[in-house]
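Lab notebook page, bench 4
Experiment: in silico fold of construct C2
Operator: M.H.
Input chain length: 346 residues
Purpose: comparison with the prior construct
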Amino acid sequence: MEQFEGDTNNGVVIKKEYDVLVRKIDSLWTNAKSRAASAVNTELLDANWETGKYIVEFEQQGNVRAEYGKKLIIQLAKDLTARRGRGFSRSNIIYMRKFYLCFPKGETMSHLLTWSHYFELLKCEDEMERQFYFQEAITQKWKVRELRRQIKSSLFHRIALSSDKKGVLELSRQGHTVMTAEDIIHDPFVLEFTGLEKKRRYKESDLEKALLDNMEKFLLELGRGFAFYGRQYVMPIGGRQFKVDLVFYNCILKCYVLLDLKRNEITHHDIGQMNLYLNYFKTEVCMPDDNPPIGIVLGSRRDEVLMEYALEGITNQLFTARYQLYLPRKEELQAQLDRLLNETEI
């Protein structure tokens, strides 16, 4: 704005005041659009829920026999599309009906999520699994693609299998609460986003680079509270230099998290090496208000008995976990979870 530029102090003051005016108006309209979008989302969700309610109530009044249920949806899709246009496909109407059935009390649904979120959630047939992703999507503020990826990678099952029966039920009620070091461990970690093929020969440095190239997705896989700190972190000890592959800081646990990548099976030597790194970090890196660091050795395989002996007596927070370069089979994970839940009565 040339008319506000000049050599006088008054001109400079006016220019600064004008800039403040622009920022205020810009902020006003940004917030207004955000509130408008939120209001539209609220109305859309309520309308979808009400539509599902009308359909279910119509069915329950005896107007539709079971064998005509599919015909009802097909006819509704045709008639509503003719009246209202797009948005009333057979698939959408089926999910509107399911929306009401899964959230029969309107107050239990959240307007913090969009219809696209619910569309993904309603694909989960298991109620515990659906409730877990529902809680996590709200808490983590997942975008739809992030929610879709977590469902596809069976995050619920992977976390649930590291819990007891009571813990599984708690997951479905409250989501995944990070309270201890154990809470950040998934087994396996799923790294399909790296693009590395399972059968291809690759080096540990290839895996590290692939993770760095996809850091946003890797942080999503790691879970809540992680911030990337550095790669190949150098630790000078006894005239030698040691390097840990990746270092993160977890803002919830208030501690450093050290990650070492192993292309093959985790060995007892890897455990000792990570223990060395943790001792160095405790003494040389951590601040007085930091909690003790956590170490994770991430490998493609591990021998449970060997790991038991290797970790015996270690006082540091040191864990081993497997990774997969492909999505786990949900059927196998579900079978394992069913066995866990059926061991004794809940």
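Observations: The first helix runs from residue 9 to 63. The mean pLDDT is 87.
Next step: discuss at group meeting.
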